[in-house]
Amino acid sequence: ALSPCPLSSGWLPALQFVRRGSKAVTRHWKAMHFQRQKLMAVTEYVAPRPAVPPRCRPPAKEKAEEDNGYARLLRRQVEEVFRDNRMIAVCQYNPMAGEDVVLMRQYLRKHSIEVKFVLNEIVRPVLSQSKYKNLLPLFVARNILLVSREAKVKEMLRVLKGVPQINLLGACIDDTILSRRGVENFAKLPSLEAAQGQTVGALALLPSQTSSLLQRGSAHLTALLDQHIRQL
C-alpha cells in the first residue's frame, strides 16, 4: 500500500526562512537651505503696533470676584476694629515660635492691647473706601494689628522692644495717622491729665499776674501816703 502524501497531512518543511532586520529609515533631518531661511525671515508676519501705547491706556477693570459670606464677615470685623479703638498700630510680622507669640500676647493684654492677625486681601478693600486709605502702603507683606481702646503707646513700645520679630510700621491714634517716628514722639508727650493741668495752671497764672500789676500802683500810693502822714 502506498503511504499518504506528506502535503495532505499538513507536513511542513524542516527549514523556514524568516526575514529579520531593522526597519528601513527613509527620513533624516536636514537643515533648511540658507535661501529658504532668508525667505522665511522676510515673509514672517509682524503684528501692527497699536495706535495708542499700552502705558497710555487706562488700566483694565479687574473682574469682581464672587463675594462670599466669610469674606464679608472678616471685612466687617476689620471695620469694627478701626471704629471701636483709639489706637491701631500696623506692624510687620516675621515668623516666630508659638510660645513667643503667646508670651507677647500676654504682655500686651496686661495693658489692654489686643493682637489681630489680618489678611491684606481683606484689609485693603476696607481701607480703600474709608478715611484710613493713607495706611494702604503699609499693608504689603504679612502684617498684624495692635489695637487698644486707649492710647497705650508707651506700653506698646516697651513690649515691642523685646520682640525683634515684630517691626512697627505706623499707627493711627485718635484718627491721626503717624509714622514710626511720629509714634515714638507721641510716646514722649505727657498724659492728657498732666497736659490739662499744665494748661489750667498757665491760664490761671495770667489773671493773677494782671491783678497784681493793677494793684501795685494803688498799694504803692497808699504806702507813700502813710509814710507822709507819719512824718507830719
Summarize this structure as a short list of keywords or feature phrases:
5-stranded antiparallel beta sheet, elongated, Alpha-Beta Plaits, 232 residues, Ribosomal_uL10_bac_type, ribonucleoprotein, alpha+beta, mitochondrion
Can you describe this structure?
With 232 residues, the protein is α+β, with helices and mostly antiparallel strands. It has a domain at 71-188: Ribosomal protein L10, N-terminal RNA-binding domain (Alpha-Beta Plaits, 2-Layer Sandwich), CATH 3.30.70. Helix content is 44%, strand content 12%. A five-stranded antiparallel beta sheet has the order 2-3-1-4-5. The longest helix has 40 residues, at 192-231. The radius of gyration is 45 Å and the shape is elongated. It starts with 33 loop residues before the first helix and ends with a helix.
Outline the secondary-structure elements.
Blueprint: H1 34-42, H2 69-84, E1 87-93, H3 98-109, E2 114-117, H4 120-128, E3 143-148, H5 153-160, E4 166-173, E5 176-179, H6 180-187, H7 192-231
Antiparallel strand pairs: 1-3, 1-4, 2-3, 4-5
Helix pairs in contact: 2-4
Could you provide a short overview of the structure?
This protein is of the alpha+beta class.
Order of helices and strands: HHEHEHEHEEHH
Q: What global shape is seen?
A: elongated
Please count the helical segments.
7
Helicity level:
40-55%
The CATH class of the domain at 71-188: Alpha Beta
**Mean pLDDT over all positions:** 81
Biggest sheet details: 5 strands, antiparallel
What's the CATH topology label of the domain at 71-188? Alpha-Beta Plaits
N-to-C span? 198 Å
